[in-house]
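Hi C.,

You asked whether I'd gotten around to modeling the 207-residue construct. I have! Everything is below, sequence then structure, no commentary in between.
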Amino acid sequence: MPSQAKVRWAQLRVGVMAMVSMAILAVLIFLFTQDKPIWEHYDTIYTFMDDSASLAKGAPVRLNGILIGSVTSIGLSGSREPNRIVRVTMQVEAYRLKNIPIDSVAGIDAENVLGTKFINIAMGKSRVTVEPEGEVKSEASPEIQDLVKKGFGLFDAAQAILGRLDKIVSLIQRRAQGGGAAQPGDSGPRCGPGDGRATAQESRTVQ
């Protein structure tokens, strides 16, 4: 029969192992639920614009279409200078900064007319790159809302054209189904000026 000391030691080991297992599980859950891996280092950069164009926090940041980070905050900069009213804060992968020349240009783009908006940085050509806490200049591009309105205008025009085509097709189908039916205003066979003489000649021939 095991002694009381051995029983207590076994219970202690079971308790310690349970606590270690719970701690490991908690760490794994934390790691898998993070948007960004904690072992990757991110740096903050900024860009300033006239309007946020409904850009949302958490929107992707892309470099020539390649995902490099995300938008962490959007707010008023406190400045009234043109193209510097709104400040967009971005976190990008630290090793990507060497690929962002200082003459790069940031702009708001979308996957499609109704798609999610994101920041797209067009890579510049300078050999000097953006530093952490640095700024990427933005482009003075037309409002995305204006592009959406233009898109809806084209859609309405296309709908109008399709409606007209549908009416034409319906009219052709009705006439085809009518076949040789008499049209309104028709009063039967019409006789030309020589029809009377031809009829008289046919009568004499029969006699």
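If it helps when you're writing up: The radius of gyration is 39 Å.

Thanks,
B.
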